[in-house]
Amino acid sequence: MTTLSNRAGGRVRRATMSDVARLAGVSIKTVSRVVNDEPGVHVDTAERVLAAIERLGFRRNVGALNLRRGSSTGTIGLVLEDVANPFYSGLTRAVEEVARGYGRQVLTGSSDEDAGRERELALEFCARRVDGLIVVPAGLRHGYLMPEIASGTPVVFVDRPPGDVLADTVLVDNIEGASAAVVHLAAHGHRRVAFLGDAPDIFTATERLRGFREGCAKAGIPYEERFVAMGPHTEASVAATLRRILGGRHPATALLTGNNRITVHVLRAIAGIRRRPALVGFDDFELADLLDPPVSVVALDPGTLGKSAAELLFARLDGDTTPPRRIVLPVRLVPRGSGEVGP
Amino acid sequence: MTTLSNRAGGRVRRATMSDVARLAGVSIKTVSRVVNDEPGVHVDTAERVLAAIERLGFRRNVGALNLRRGSSTGTIGLVLEDVANPFYSGLTRAVEEVARGYGRQVLTGSSDEDAGRERELALEFCARRVDGLIVVPAGLRHGYLMPEIASGTPVVFVDRPPGDVLADTVLVDNIEGASAAVVHLAAHGHRRVAFLGDAPDIFTATERLRGFREGCAKAGIPYEERFVAMGPHTEASVAATLRRILGGRHPATALLTGNNRITVHVLRAIAGIRRRPALVGFDDFELADLLDPPVSVVALDPGTLGKSAAELLFARLDGDTTPPRRIVLPVRLVPRGSGEVGP
DNA sequence: TCGCGTCCTGACAACCTTGTCGGTGGTGAT
DNA sequence: ATCACCACCGACAAGGTTGTCAGGACGCGA
Which pLDDT score is estimated for B5? Predict the structure, then answer.
């Protein structure tokens, strides 16, 4: 058992190749050769160098390496809304996995749906010269990334498209998903369906609202303004909305929720009430199948989203210079029961 | 709408201070002064420099900055088991938040419970000269971090203690938590309680097993080997285990699960069966309160864990040189119903 | 002996930025 | 006219690493 702490306090200068060279009695360049497994070093010399490296606990300074080589820093940046949201943590993991295959580390940051913070994070990552950037946009304008992309840093936008620029984007079929959900509910007899969506300045929110509307049209049920409640939502606001929507003379009998957060809020709000509305939630979530009734969802695997984005990014890094692509991943309606209850 | 893509293909050299200086007709140093808001630059000159910066899309190379300044890279590393696990993503978010307060970026990596990968990630981060490291150990030996800590990089271990070294550690009270859970179950009449834990080489797993044992003793119920099933667990292995434990002449009537993954597996496995065992799960999880019956848990907030670890880390960075600390956070038994059903 | 090739090694510059220090030109006081 | 002072600016080195190039030692054939 060794005490692993530097009781001296202040940071100590780390050993450099220069130190190793001095100790081994060779030149810096020879140390470099050994560290990089370059040929042309006598085995005895190499051994001395390795011993010195071991003794000094030398570890190559990757920062200096990057500066010298100038090509790749071996990092990519990932800006998303909130890692703690299971949707984004799944996405993060997928990105990490792909990055690992390409020998890259991942810098992550949560924007909390704040455009300024998104920008701050993205530019900070760029200043660190990440090899590429994956961004879940919080803001609507991304011109600030112009110089970055112009100088060869590929950027891929995920889940939402960028504003005022054209770049690689991976989306999901929000419209089709929401529409299918409404059709599903209508097929089970519902004619008064409500939509609880995220803030209208969020791309996915308005897209899903559009899908909701299209679904109503397709299913031949009325689209009613009073049944649409866009966010931002909190647990309290969702509860209040539900009181309004589910009360009165002609209440909604079914709900479509715009993302996993809202779905959870709704579930909590309707847990106690006697006559629960039918429900379909956008985004799948763990345990949805174990609730009573099991929650039907429009599922889109965050892992697939992350993987697609990362692979697109690395394709760019590998030299793909085709025009910016827009990938739209399909969603899947997963009927589990909560959408099948009649009005 | 501008096309944000570098169709030229290969990476273009980014503008440097030298380029800015040339364009503005000043020396590099003057550019540096402007960029760093140093005094002693005529306002007209500064304006010319700023214009050049804007024009060239110049962004200071943080790598070079770090090399030159030598002090801090403004990053910390976080090695955990799996970001996609809600427990760790909550922890990640908390760490990120604290780091943000200290102006640091976070490098994250998932070890997947693989000691080699943990080591690889940690050393990679150190090579990038992170200012500090937060590690959820996967392996049992951490001597490899000796040189890092010796040279002043503080390391904080979270959730599990390090092996063969002494360093700052933030844990939760696993023993007390498991013990309290058993006592709780016994108080509701259960005398045959089973424990489904993680792999025995994981610290928290054996600690919780110990707590389970102590709980049995404290509650005056028998501790039976046949009711203990340590992992690693998969959905299938959990199901098989349950068939064994819940079958036969004297089956277990209550379960304690060792972490949120196992709890979910159990929930899925017992969803269909007629006579469900009582259940208490270690780790809280979203929607636990909405299941039927609501799942009682031993709760420990991953955010608190992450926050404590990060704050400890930054205290070290701020010069705290007191001996390594071991913080044990309390857990809280949250009775929700699943632990209250009788045998 | 010389010339030549091979193997091993080191000096030096460069990557981009900043700290140090010295220089220039102008202003005001003597 | 001289000097001190100030505001502004630039040359240079350094930080840790690697690519380029050149040099020394040695062996071998002529």
Answer: 44
